[in-house]
Amino acid sequence: MLAELLLLAHVIGATVLFGTGAGIAFFMVMAHRTRDPIVIAHVAGTVVIADTVFTATAAILQPVTGYLLARSIGWDLWEGWIALSLLLYVVTGLFWLPVVWIQIRLRDLARAAASSGQALPPIYISLYRIWFACGFPAFFAVVGILWLMLTKPSIALF
Fold it and tell me: Rounded to an integer, what distance in angstroms lies between the CA atom of residue 123 and that of residue 130?
């Protein structure tokens, strides 16, 4: 029964990470396409909140539920698919952490432009491009983790 509850919590966490990440990306891209600082400021503000409430919470709980689940089932954390999943999780985090800072900067730059009636500054465009580029490796790393978790392939580490 404990393993089933941990599995449910782990799957919900994975769903939240993937779904929130995809949703945030979609809404940020759509807001950016308007080039309207007011729209971008509003959407980016909501995105920062969503990332804090949903993504950060799930990102913290995922390794906890994963570890407890592996322990309760008797899986070795050095089993190939688990170790590779953990490596991809770290990769995802390395791309996600700068994205969080960039989203806050994008929000602040859009708010400043909106309040002054100015266009978005060039730094906004540069930061947006970095934000956009960071999304791809993080997205594909999460897809890889989901695939590994679902298929549990036999992967020899050594």
Answer: 11
What is the 3-state secondary structure of 114-130? Answer: HHHCCCCCHHHHHHHHH
Max CA separation in the chain (angstroms): 60
> Is the full-model pTM beyond 0.70?
yes
Q: List, for residues 44-87, the tens digit of each pLDDT value.
A: 999 999 999 999 999 999 999 999 999 999 999 999 999 999 99
**Shortest CA distance to 19 belongs to which of 43, 41, 50, 52?**
50
Query: What's the chain's Rg over C-alpha atoms?
Result: 18
Going by the DSSP 8-state scheme, the letter that residue 8 receives in this structure is H
Residues 6 or more apart whose Cβ sits within 8 Å of residue 101? none
- Per DSSP, which regions of 3-75 are E strands? none
Residue for token pair 């400021």: 41
